[in-house]
Structures are given as structure tokens and as C-alpha cells.
Specification:
With about 425 residues, the chain is mainly alpha-helical. The chain contains 20 helices and 2 strands.
């Protein structure tokens, strides 16, 4: 009678089998949740409002109720975020609102990452792709807060371009509802609309056409609000040297080499060594290969979001030398670059595979000490939210440090001013 294989060897074999044909399991979902929690534990253990969480989404849910859903902010709609704020105001006492905001952001972020295991996506290296959402170098600005959740949910649009057409009515309805919800949450439907046009032109299927029409309708709505209500920025003349320095810093130098070199190297060196390898990677991934169609979508998504981000933010005008400012604009591009590197793990020649693994390993090791974001000040939300409970005006400290929620009171309790 043969002896049973040692437990470690059996476990390693099972893991290799799972990695070849991955599916979402409870232990991997728990791993994703743990990794996200460890990046910003205080966001769940000591939840507080962050920036527009209070001054926009909370206040306008208080004043307008469901009528806040179609209200634009910064020139576009935030449907999903406003739904969370509205439900929180109806479900719980104000002391629990930050927990509900952050809890929703945590759960939705996990859902986006876990969706990489959908059998309709069938993407190579799905476990690595899911891990990049939370392991990739970042300041934590987009994680576990309602205000910046849109930068993570934008990946739903990219997933929909890659996903196989639905085979059931439930899948079809779910796809269209998701596209409608995410298309009206942030301006990303505008940026990624060409991907859906490309998907329909390539397949010419009815479901691709339906997806294109929904995203096009959402993009048209967002464009209308951008033109009618959006802020009008007046930027100084373009400064190429500063532009390439900032792009190189955030895309490659800081992720791979860390803070010190990203700020100490000469600007010309940062710009050249930060951008040229990225362009080389983008060009290399478009070589003839069975994965070329998937890679081409990611390259196009990278180009589209970079154009939108630099047009909106004009990084050449940034005067701050810290790497925290504006980091959210580079979150999506860095994750997409990580996906392209993951898809080179089995590349031929072998040197390319080794370089890809080395780059991602360097990103992980260089930022290991910074993995957990430093704890912010605790403004003791529960002790300051009594005015909201009573519906009377008050100034309440919130995050980020120095931000104040100027709570105006509940409309029904505010006396009209004397004429």
C-alpha cells in the first residue's frame, strides 16, 4: 500500500493545479481582504469621513435626499457614491456613517478585484491581476474611502471590454446595469468609450452593441455636465521638462526605485528613464502573440486614461515635490502596467520574463515598509456628530488633516432668514 504524500508536497501540488486554472476560493478572497485591510487598517477600525465624503456626499444627501443622485460635482455625476451616502443616511445613526461609507468602499473594491476570476474573463494570471489592485505601489489615496472609490470601480469598464458576451438573460441584464451604474460614476466612461466602440467593431455582436450604446449614453450625459457645470481651469503654458519628470516619477521611478531616487535624480534622467522603458513595454506587448488582442486592449486603456489624466490634472503645473500629491491620477495606469508585466512572466526570450518578474518584485520590496499607510489623526467622529443627529449647523473636523465639514444643518430645522 503506497504511503500518502507528505502534506506540504500535496498542498504545493494542489496550489499549482489551482494556479493553472484559478477560481475564486474563500481563502484567496480572504487573502485579498487581508491585504486591503493591512494597507489602511484605521479606515475600518477607526473610520472617519474623507474630504468630499462629508462636504459633498453627506451634505447633499441631507439636503436633497434622492434628488442628490443627479447632482454633478466637479462637472460629472457620482451615482454609486451618492447611493451609498443616501442609504447610509437612511439606515443608521450618524455615528455609523463613516463606517458605512468606508465599509462600502472596502466591499466594492474587493468585488472589483474578485471579479478578475469571472469565468467569462478567463484572463491569464488572474490571481496576480487581482493582487495588483492592492499590492501595486501607491499612497493609499484611492483605498477605502468613498470619495476616491471611482478610481477602482473604473476597472469594471475595462473588465467589460475584456469579458466574453453574456449567455443568459441574467448575465446580460447584470452587464448593462453595471455599465449604467459605473458609467454614471465618474468621467471614465468618456475616457474608455473608444474601447467599447472597438469591441463592437471587432465582434459586431448585439451584446457588444448594447454595451456600446449604454456607455455612449452615459458618456454623453457626463460630457453634458462637464461642459455645463464643470470648473474652467486656466493653466499656464505647457512645460515639457516638468511634464516628463512628473510622468516618469509616478509611472516607473518611484514604483521601482522608491522615494529618494525619484526626488533626487536630475529631472532629465527621471523623465527619460521613467518613460522610455514604459514605451518599450507597450510596444513589446503588441508583438504577434496569442494574447495580443487582450494586451492591445490594456495598452489602449493605458493610453486613454493617461491622456485623460494629464489633460485634467496638467502635471507640469504641480509645484509640490512630494509624491503624494495627485497620486490618484496614476493609480489606474500603474495597475495596467503591472498587468502587462504579469502577462510577460512566461515570455520568450526568457530574459523578458525575468526582467518582468524582477520589476514587480522590486516594486514589492522597495515599498514593503510603506505598505501600511501611516495612521491619520483621530478626530473622534462619534463625539462630534451630535449636531448632525440634531440637524443643527456645526463645523466638524474630518480627514484629510485640516479638512472641516461645514455642516449646514438639516433643511427642515433651519429657520428662514428674515426679509
Amino acid at each position: 500500500m503506497d504511503a500518502a504524500p507528505p502534506a506540504p508536497r500535496a498542498l504545493a501540488g494542489a496550489l499549482r493545479t489551482w494556479w493553472r486554472e484559478p477560481r475564486l476560493t474563500w481563502w484567496f478572497f480572504a487573502l485579498l481582504a487581508t491585504l486591503l485591510f493591512l494597507r489602511k487598517p484605521e479606515a475600518l477600525t477607526t473610520p472617519q469621513l474623507y474630504a468630499e465624503d462629508g462636504s459633498i456626499f453627506l451634505m447633499q444627501a441631507e439636503w436633497h435626499g434622492l434628488e442628490s443622485l443627479p447632482l454633478p460635482y466637479m462637472g460629472y455625476l457620482h451615482l454609486l457614491l451618492r447611493l451609498v451616502a443616501w442609504f447610509a443616511s437612511r439606515l443608521a445613526d450618524p455615528a455609523w456613517w463613516p463606517a458605512l461609507y468606508n465599509g462600502a468602499a472596502f466591499a466594492i473594491s474587493l468585488g472589483v478585484a474578485a471579479r478578475m476570476f469571472s469565468r467569462r474573463l478567463a484572463l491569464p494570471g488572474a490571481p496576480w491581476l487581482a493582487l495588483t489592485f492592492f499590492l501595486s505601489p501607491q499612497t493609499g489615496e484611492v483605498l477605502i474611502n468613498l470619495t476616491n472609490l471611482q478610481w477602482i470601480t473604473a476597472f469594471v469598464l475595462i473588465q467589460q471590454v475584456l469579458i466574453a458576451p453574456p449567455t443568459t438573460g441574467t448575465q446580460r441584464a447584470g452587464d448593462l446595469v453595471l455599465l449604467l451604474l459605473i458609467g454614471l460614476t465618474g468621467p471614465f466612461g468618456i475616457a474608455f468609450l473608444p474601447l467599447f466602440a472597438w469591441g463592437w467593431w471587432r465582434d459586431r455582436g448585439g451584446d457588444r452593441l448594447a454595451a456600446l450604446l449604454v456607455v455612449a449614453a452615459c458618456a454623453a450625459v457626463q460630457v453634458w455636465f462637464v461642459l455645463r457645470t464643470g470648473p474652467k481651469f486656466e493653466f499656464p503654458p505647457f512645460v515639457p521638462s516638468r511634464f516628463f519628470e512628473i510622468i516618469g516619477q509616478h509611472l516607473l521611478i518611484w514604483p521601482v526605485l522608491g522615494d529618494s531616487l525619484a526626488t533626487m535624480l536630475p529631472p532629465a534622467v527621471v523623465g527619460f528613464t521613467g518613460i522610455v522603458p514604459v514605451l518599450a513595454l507597450l510596444g513589446w506587448t503588441l508583438r504577434p502573440h496569442p494574447r495580443r488582442p487582450q494586451r492591445a486592449i490594456i495598452v489602449a486603456a493605458f493610453a486613454l486614461i493617461m491622456v485623460a489624466a494629464v489633460f485634467r490634472s496638467r502635471p507640469d503645473t504641480w509645484n509640490l515635490d512630494n509624491l503624494i500629491f495627485g497620486d490618484r491620477y496614476f493609480y489606474i495606469p500603474r495597475v495596467l502596467l503591472a498587468w502587462l508585466l504579469v502577462w510577460e512572466f512566461d515570455a520568450i526570450p526568457l530574459a523578458v520574463a525575468r526582467i518582468s518578474r524582477a520589476l514587480l518584485l522590486a516594486c514589492a520590496l522597495v515599498h514593503l515598509n510603506d505598505y501600511t499607510v501611516p495612521a491619520p489623526p483621530d478626530y473622534h467622529w462619534a463625539q462630534h456628530c451630535e449636531p448632525i443627529r440634531r440637524g443643527v449647523p456645526a463645523n466638524i473636523p474630518t480627514l484629510p488633516e485640516g479638512w472641516t465639514l461645514e455642516y449646514r444643518g438639516r433643511p427642515s430645522l433651519i429657520k428662514p432668514s428674515a426679509k
